[in-house]
Every structure is written in C-alpha cells, then in structure tokens.
C-alpha cells in the first residue's frame, strides 16, 4: 500500500490558497479515480483508490499545516506503511510559480509542515513533490502563503497540479522514484 499526503489547511477559509496546493493535488488524484475523502482516521481525511493495481491512500491532514506530522506518523503506523511508500506533496516558495520538483529526501527547508512530518516519522528520507508558489515580493510570508492565486496564476497552477498528479501516477506504475525525478524535474 502507498500513501500520498497533500499538505494544507482545512476549512473554507483556506481553500485555493498557495499553502493548499498539496490538497489540490490529492483532490485531483481523487477526481481522476472517482473516489471521495469519506473516511476520517488519525486526524486526517482519507480517500482510497486503486492506481496501477496498487492500493493508495490519498490523505489530507486535518491538523492544519504546521502539525501535519501529527496525522502522517500515526497513519503510517496504523496502516503499517513503510516510509519508502510515502509521498508528501507541498508548496515551495523557493520554486518558480507552477514548477514542480521531486526530491527523495532532505531537510524541511523552512517549511513548518515538512518540519512536523520529519519530527513524527523520525526521518528526512521520504519522497516529496514540491509545487512552486514563488516568494513574496511585497507582503509577509504568512499573508503570501494564505493568499489566493490571481486569474493568470490559476492557469499555471492548474498545469502544475496536473504535472504533480502525472508524476505520482508514473511512480505508482512501477517506475523508480529516481526515474520519476528524471522525467518530471
């Protein structure tokens, strides 16, 4: 079984914000496979899909971004999923808007959601799909990540969400993560 976790903040107030692109990706995957987030477990909403004959948990933590690990760690334990079978999808201010970058491991890089996941899974060695949201030019980081995309930016982000989903599907089809990185980075 694989677990794909999109990071974000729960609630209408945060829908379609820059910080919620992780949610957007797992929601698009759920749409592609016609499944709903109809289970709650370990402070997360879960949809179960079969992708390339692989059982996949699509996860949206309900803990808010900065405590995402509080859901991820217990879910891995509960479902007996190895960290090698985990992908975290999240926003990245250091990437150009609409770009994606896959990583096999690494530090939190200042991202509090990733910092929380590292603390709760006890390793930095988990796969990530980062979605670029640009760095703020004339507003605070907090206001930036909680802001919504302009009409022009929405088209770029739609493409980024599509690419992120395609990358996850490519990996789930049996390709190594290194090959997936080479294809999508």
UniProtKB/TrEMBL annotation:
Catalyzes the release of premature peptidyl moieties from peptidyl-tRNA molecules trapped in stalled 50S ribosomal subunits, and thus maintains levels of free tRNAs and 50S ribosomes. Hydrolyzes ribosome-free peptidyl-tRNAs (with 1 or more amino acids incorporated), which drop off the ribosome during protein synthesis, or as a result of ribosome stalling. It catalyses: an N-acyl-L-alpha-aminoacyl-tRNA + H2O = an N-acyl-L-amino acid + a tRNA + H(+). InterPro entries: Pept_tRNA_hydro, Pept_tRNA_hydro_CS, Pept_tRNA_hydro_sf. It is found in: Cytoplasm. Its EC number is 3.1.1.29. SUPFAM superfamilies: Peptidyl-tRNA hydrolase-like. Its main location: cytoplasm. The record marks 91 as: Stabilizes the basic form of H active site to accept a proton. Monomer. The keyword Lyase does not apply. Pfam families: Pept_tRNA_hydro. TRNA binds at residues 14, 64, 66, 112. Keywords: Cytoplasm, Hydrolase, RNA-binding, tRNA-binding. One of its GO terms (molecular function) is hydrolase activity. This is Peptidyl-tRNA hydrolase. The record marks 9 as: Discriminates between blocked and unblocked aminoacyl-tRNA. The active site is at 19 (proton acceptor). The gene is pth. HAMAP family: Pept_tRNA_hydro_bact. It comes from the Bacteria. Belongs to the PTH family.
